[in-house]
Design a protein that fits this description.
Layout: E1 2-5, E2 11-19, E3 22-30, E4 33-41, E5 47-54, E6 57-66, E7 69-76, E8 79-87, E9 93-98, H1 99-107
Antiparallel strand pairs: 1-2, 2-3, 3-4, 4-5, 5-6, 6-7, 7-8, 8-9
């Protein structure tokens, strides 16, 4: 970890977490937890999520990349929920609507 600390020695303010020498998270912390705006990276340093965190979980608006798709929408308690949009690698919108409906389409491979 490289960043600010609270008086109790917990990660606090802006900082970077590392995993095997690579940045795993870059953003805001509050008393040892991801809290506020941040960016999450995979083990290869590729951005996989950018958005808001609360108490170490994705919360609020965010953008997540998975495979060749990118989801932009709302998160609650770490999970994508409600209305959102999905884009392909060419940045073309391929889905708009409720996230649970997108999951159904993914299972049937119609996206």
């Amino acid at each position: 970890y490289d960043g600010g600390y609270s008086k109790k020695g917990l990660q606090h303010g802006y900082g970077k977490e590392f995993f095997y020498g690579n940045v795993a998270y870059k953003g805001e912390f509050k008393l040892g937890m991801r809290h506020g705006h941040g960016k999450e990276y995979d083990v290869h340093g590729i951005l996989v999520f950018e958005g808001e965190y609360k108490d170490n979980l994705r919360e609020g608006l965010g953008e997540e990349c998975f495979g060749r798709l990118r989801y932009k929408g709302k998160y609650e308690r770490g999970q994508a929920v409600g209305y959102g949009e999905v884009y392909n690698k060419l940045d073309q919108r391929v889905f708009i609507g409720e996230y649970k409906e997108f999951l159904k389409k993914m299972k049937s491979r119609s996206v």
